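Escalated from tier 1: manganese (II) ion holo job.
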Amino acid sequence: MKLLLTALQRIHKPAVYASPRRRLSSCASSSGLSPLRDEALVVGSSRELVRRLGSQVEVRTGFITEEEEGSFLRELEPGLKKKRYEFDHWDDAIHGYRETERARWGAACEEVMNRVRSVAFPEGGPLLGPVHVLDLDKTGYIKPHIDSVKFCGSTIAGLSLLSDSIMRLVKEDATDEWVDVLLPRLSLYILRGQARYNFTHQILRDEESVFNGQKVPRLRRISVICRNLPG
Ligand code: OGA
Ligand code: MN
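Tier 2 regenerated the structure:
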């Protein structure tokens, strides 16, 4: 999977102004109007940027249940446990991780994966065969990078298990343009188009994991990531 990543080191300059954006959680949108469930999951260097990215950065909270998370863990833990977390490759885009790929799932997970595919990708479009599973240690993090345009298409969709985290997007050619995206445990995020091609993405380490002024403890986190093929 290393081939998929091109690490682009960036120094992130904290912005002067962060503008909250309201997003309906998937629960709120499916149950009609429920303003109390609205959450600001995306903040950025300007309101205009957050607005411009719009649906290219999507977070659906509560996309899976704790039971479904349990099904993924039961399927994934035995294989992951046999691997060691990797820490010491200075040139890796990811620090403190182990990973695997999966083409077949048991019924419960397959049902979730079908849901992911149907909300994130256009029907019938070719997907990257195996799903990527990334297990970040509590001290692990993902450095700024853009997924390889040679191997991956316009859309990246990821489930977050076990921990909340913050994904930071920074415009590749204008590093003062950034957004932070809160990825709650059990949520699905989708990056599309510009957000996928023109912004680096990273998952912040625990020490830096502060969203809109509020600490978001980063525990061990497993992500299950679907990608499509380049058009
Ligand atoms: C990656 C990546 C994000 C995540 O593996 O390329 O950016 O949610 N992962 O784990
Ligand atoms: Mn990536």
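The radius of gyration is 17 Å.
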